[in-house]
Design brief:
Layout (H helix, E strand, L loop, with lengths): L2 H10 L4 H7 L2 H4 L3 H8 L14 H14 L6 H23 L4 H4 L16 H6 L2 H18 L12
Helix pairs in contact: 1-2, 1-9, 2-4, 2-5, 2-9, 5-6, 5-9, 6-9
Length: 159
Amino acid sequence: MARADLAREYFKSGLNCAQAVVLAYEDVMGMDRDQLLKLAAPFGGGVGRMREICGTVSGMMIVLGAVFYNPAAPANAAKTALYAREQEVAARFRKENGSIVCRELLAGVGADSGPIASERTPQYYKKRPCAELCACAAQILETYLEEEGILPFEGGNRA
């Protein structure tokens, strides 16, 4: 199954948006599934459901950190290299979706920022773009990782 489809299905199975994107890259992360789910859990709903940076974008950042950050490199050089990658991927997401901010992406949906998780019902999935945002983020990240030679090009859609 394509990573975009995996991310979409993980979200539809009840995972938050960040977890859905991260888990679609489980094979390249170097951590087990439970660790990944714990690591990404706080980033759902725009970080703790505060509707700030979209959890799908946070998920992409977690993957980029796991793949590209070199803890043995000098701090500033390693940070600068990673920040450049993160900004590139975020720009691609913003270009595709108009924003990287959860509350802006959910404008008109009536999503609140309280701490109580929404029930995952058919109506929930119907009115929110989150499953498709998960797929979009996973595809953007896949394209980027293919371009960087981390993943083999498999003929997916180029963003």
